[in-house]
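Quick one: structure for this chain?
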Amino acid sequence: MTKDMSKIKKVFVTRVVIIYILVLIFSATIIAQVFNLMVVQRKKWEEVNTNSTKKIVTSPKRGNILSKNENILSTSVPWYHITIDLRTDEWKKYFIRPSDSLSHNLDIVCRELAKYVPGKSGYQIRQELKTRFQHKKQFYFKHKFNFAELRKLKELPILNKNQYKSGLIANTHNKRVKPYGELAFRTIGQLDHNGRGNAGLEMAYNDYLSGKPGEALMQRLPGGVWMPVNNGNIVEPEDGYNLVSTIDISFQEIVHNALKKQLVKTKANHGSAVLMDVETGEVLAISNLTDTLGKYLEYYNYAIGERTEPGSTMKLMSLMAGIEDGYINLDDSIDSGNGKFKYMSLTISDTHKGGYGKLSVKEAFKVSSNVGVAKIILQHYEDRQNEFVDRLYNMGLHKKLGISIPGEPAPIIKYPSDSLWWKGSLAQMSYGYEVKFTPLQILAFYNAVANNGKMVKPRFGRYLKRGQHIVKQFRTQTINSSICSRSTIRKAQELLESVVDNGYYTDENGKRQYAGIRGTGHNLVTKHYKIAGKTGTAQIAIGTKGYGNTKKYQASFVGYFPADNPKYSCIVVISSPKLGGYYGNVIAGPVFREISDKVYAQSFAIIEDEEENDTESLIKTPYSENGYLPEIDEVVQEFDIPFSDTGITSDWVLTYNHDSIIEYRNRIISDNRTIPNVIGMGLKDAIYILENKGLKVKVVGYGTVRQQWPKPGTAFRKGDKVKIELR
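Got it. Here's what it folds into:
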């Protein structure tokens, strides 16, 4: 018994030793392998790891540019490039001995995918998927998917699983859309190929609109396909702010249409018009149109970037200089003779045949006498030319405005010590030659006269928003608190009011009586309100050739209204009209009058409404537009508005207001063959739906879609045009 126990013990010990040795060998092997991987082959595996994963920059959503009333002027509409990686284990089930149920699911998927592959049936899609699976390739779509379409794909069998099983890869892209088309197109601006603003507001406020990029980790799959890890970001992108601009879309439409109509009528080369708020300097509307192969389009921002000789609108600055220096009074007499005046090598002429003879300074300005203004300026400054230019400089006329939108050139006002100054420069400058300004620079000066001498910087941004919260405001900036004395301003205002005078007045008996010389802007007289301003006509120099034999002209009118309590200032400049003359009063004046009439009428109606209505008593039920369900949900929950969504199965809904509750109802937009119904939607949703169907959209008005042409349900082809009217 003892021997047996001893033998057993010996065998046991032997086995334990063997096991122990094996464990030691195994452990040593593991340690050696770990050492080999971590030390010897460290660099190799770091390179492999680096090549199999990478960090990529994820783009934030660019902020919207909104009008003063927060209508969308520029927005980003997302679309997706979609690829299906067929090498996942899930797809193997469907192509290697699939069951009947799996085969049925595959048929469903292929039928749906065929909707996005023109000319192919579900069966053909299935065969192509199988071929690509066998060759270990991906399946690509040429079709650009919108969010709603992507969401439908993700609800299909196979594709409703996570990305590692479904193989569905969606790369997001954003398209910048301007819902109002050509309205303020150049001022709103555009993006370059890197998604940065390169013109207009897009460029001026790019840092605010762009947001901050994030980071995502990507993993390389067999075959070189990159896929996001865990479908998430390492660092979340921070979306850009929304910019609320100063553009009033209703005023913008007025200005754009009035300018375009006159350009078409006169067959002019190009033109610009700007409407500004006198007190704040807010640019409420700005239009720049160029004749482009027979169509007038927003091609270049002339109001900001084109510096030209202004012509007679300069006469105000010249006379204000003399008034401020104490040399000129409005009732001083000037002999304009027969309308011809030779000075040095110049022959200065008035447009009125036979001239005006003796005139007061006010009358010379009223009839825009080149001879009269040149003579009065020469009389007082011929021997003190520096003093004249210094006064123009003191009023700030030689400086840039420093506006937010890039592209503004500095004004040109020569100084007597300049090499290009000659003996006739003073006379030429007095009535608008040998000086150059942009339309906006001239408007800013006239706006200062309307604003009792205070020059404010024209501005295009009001504030930045994130959600419903204002995060930064852009306030009015003063360029010059007083361009001259108050007495000079009052006389300047008197001069400008005299221009818009038809030479008659109505007496106590209601009879029309002659009162004297009529102003060059007599055709702008209106019985409802007073306009103050100045006509301008200038011959255009053609490059280095000078004025040449082929004469081209620039017509302008700049002023403000109502003259007795200025609210708006406006400038209209039209270059190279071919029909209807070329004088400022007959070419630019009617555009100014149409703008002022319609803007005044709208403003008056607004004031009347505010006086008559108690807005608090009118708000009884919440208001909502038809639209995209997730976005409406977000709003009503944010503001804690009661709603009913019973039985809702669609992404797009109709909304109905009942007492204090919003009720949702299903809305079927359309199939892929007929025009969707967007009536009742906001502009952003309507644009999103129509453009993602491949339709081109023309927008009229603002607010909510009330009508559309062609009618909903009409068959269409990609590229067809749809017009929507908003009110």
